[in-house]
Amino acid sequence: MSGTPLLEARGIVRRFGHVQALGGADFSVYPGEICALIGDNGAGKSTLVRILSGADRPDAGEILLEGKPVDLASPGTAQQMGIATVYQDLALAPDLSPADNLYLGRELLRPGFLGSLGFVDRRRMRRNATEQFSRLGVKLRSPRVAVATLSGGQRQSVAITRAAMWADKLIFMDEPTAALGVIQTERVLNLIKQVRDQGIAVVLISHNMPQVLEVADRVEVLRLGQRVAQLPTLGSSVEQLVAAMTSGTLAKEPAS
Amino acid sequence: MSMTTSDPDTDHSDRHTLGEILGRALGGGWIFILLIVLIAIFAAMRPTQFASSYNLSTLAINAAILLVLAIGQTFVIITAGIDLAVGSVLVFSSVAAASTMLALSGSAGSSYGTTDASWGVIAIGTLVGVGTGAAWGLLNGLLVAFARIPALIVTLGTFGMSLGFAQIVTGGQDVRAVPERLVDVIGSGSVAGVPSLVLIAVAVAIVAGIALHLTRFGMRTFAIGSNAEGARRAGIAVRKQTLKVYMLAGALSGLAGIMSIARFATTTIGGHAGDNLATISAVVLGGTSLFGGVGTIVGTVIGVFIPVVLLNGFVILGIPPFWQTVTMGAVLILAVWIDQLKRRARERG
Fold first, then answer.
1. Which of A84, B164, B175, B227 gets the most CB atoms within 10 Å of its CB?
2. Do A92 and B3 touch (CB under 8 A)?
3. pLDDT digits (tens, 9 = 90+) for B174-206
4. CA–CA separation, B24 and B18 (whole Å)
5. H/E element holding B41?
């Protein structure tokens, strides 16, 4: 992989008391790619993603966005820089419609006087939402029903669509298919590729190695709080990934 | 596993179905039908008494004050909160407003009858009532949103505190000298045949309905009730929104306090202990979910009328009015049960 990484982490250290979750971890994701972040339980994936999405702060280390050092003080800061996170536990409001959920916290107001009174422009939000869903190939029963009535896969699709709507650079996804059935998983994976094809980079945390090989362009492997491998998925096998996860060492710097 | 059934590709047109419109407009649609049926039964059995314009306007006046309280309660319950203090905040605000108006009218010596306080004094009294109500709401909101004490406990506490302060200020005696203009024009007056109190309640309901269903304030009220953590992550200032909602409920309790003075020509310190439960049942009957995130103002209007119509109808039919209490209890349980069944069905589907 050549060029400047979209987001790069160098030597990230994070301790919780005596436990060192990250011991100088490096990470990079390039524009327009799906990068899988894999590692065994406790390897530090979630901690790293929390730090890179502004939800947590590192004790040491450097984060660069498009080559320039940045301070991701909060999820809000990250969002302003075009970085969003799709949470495992779905941060959707189940009683609201998919359209209202896409605009949660960013409601469109009507133009003119009514807008200054706080009147929302439901029609425009619904139209834009429908457009956004169809652009990403998400099919919903109706854009008006409560999100809670949708299937798990559709809910996840709404969450990803929302992230893609507001992040123009990078989306972190933590196990987006963990609770889904086969067909729904397939749809969500297609959606992730659609997001990538819109020019938004995706960092995918997954334990499902065949899935990683199917959907990701590149893999970064964490082990014991450090990056131990960077592999292209093309030509890699599940065995190689598992080997890197379980016995990879920092010494083997990859040729990039 | 047959995923195709739970994940249909069918894309309906962008139109509301009739059922969707009815369902949304009526909140708990069946409760509207229940109200119609009740009115029809009473009207059929005692057409001259029940359906008389005098009786219907009495019904509406009886509902007006409770409706204003219940509208504030609707906003609070949609945020998945609860406000047990509405009735005693009403009492506190009416005492504060009545005492202010009495002092300003210059006849502070008399503690009975009416005063000839000007509209200016009445306006100041109204501001005092709404303001003190909002202040109690602010306290509720701060304790719920910032101190993170459960709303049930906070408002149970302020329920006692506001009533207690009202009794301390007045020595437990109602303030009986209130402005005559307020009683005549607002309390028993009417505009084009519609009682003033009813007009006020209707105006509050319309404005509240617009605010809840058409504005960002309303959308965020639903959002924080549906998923507070999700709303926070989406950048909504959840605590500020919660605070505003409790303040709104408090301010409406204050307004209801002024309406109560106008109607009864006195404060009614002992008369509002049951208002909190009455408003909660009205709100829940109207299809607002105690779990938050779901609710309508139209539903609350219907929910307020059910107990009022029941009591009125029972009195006219000669059924002991105690049966109203029994019936209301049963209807309330039924309403919550139906809400839970709907939720479970939804989560399975």
1. B227
2. no
3. 998 899 999 999 999 999 889 999 999 999 999
4. 10
5. helix B29-45
The number of angstroms, rounded, from the C-alpha of A190 to the middle of its chain's C-alpha atoms is: 15
Question: How far does B344 lie from chain A, in Å, by closest CA?
Answer: 10
- A154 and B7 within 8 Å at the Cβ level: the answer is yes
Among B110, B73, B113, which Cα is nearest to B89's? B73
- Whether B216 and A109 lie within 8 Å, measured CB to CB: yes
In a domain, B5, yes or no: no
Q: CATH homologous superfamily of domain A7-247?
A: P-loop containing nucleotide triphosphate hydrolases (3.40.50.300)
| Residue B108 resides in a domain | yes
Q: How many other CB atoms are found less than 10 A from the CB of residue B235?
A: 14
Indicate whether B294 belongs to any domain: yes
Which range marks the domain in which residue B218 is found?
30-37+46-348
Interface of A with B in 131-160 (CB under 8 A): 139-144, 146, 148-149, 151, 153-154
Task: Return the domain boundaries, chain A.
Answer: 7-247
Residues with Cβ < 8 Å from B81, sequence gap 6 or more? Answer: B144, B151, B225, B242, B245, B246, B292
The strand pair at A19-29 and A68-69 is best described as: unpaired
Count the domains in chain B: 1
Q: Which residues contact A40 (CB under 8 A, 6 or more apart)?
A: A223, A245, A246
Helix (H) or strand (E) holding B239: helix B238-264
Judged against a pLDDT cut of 90, whether residue B12 lies above it is answered with no
| Residue B2 contacts A, CB cutoff 8 Å | no
For A149, which of B1, B12, B346 is closest by C-beta distance? B346
> A29: helix, coil or strand?
strand
pTM of the model: 0.86
Which pair of tokens denotes residue B6? Answer: 């739970």
Residue type, B121: V
pLDDT digits (tens, 9 = 90+) for A31-87: 999 999 999 888 899 899 989 988 889 999 999 999 999 998 888 888 889 999 887
Burial track A66-104 (b if 16+ CB lie within 10 A, e otherwise):
eeeebebeebeebbebbbbbbbbebbbbbbbbbbbbbbb
A18: number of Cβ within 10 Å: 5
Which residue(s) pair with A9 in the sheet? Answer: A27, A63
B272: domain CATH number?
1.10.3470
In sequence order, the 6+-apart residues with CB closer than 8 A to the CB of A71 are A63, A77
**Which pLDDT belongs to residue B335?**
80
B26 three-state secondary structure: helix
* DSSP letter for each residue of B275-316: HHHHHHHHHHHTT--TTSS---HHHHHHHHHHHHHHHHHHHH
Q: Assign residue B150 a region (left: φ > 0; alpha: ψ between -120 and 50; beta: otherwise).
A: beta
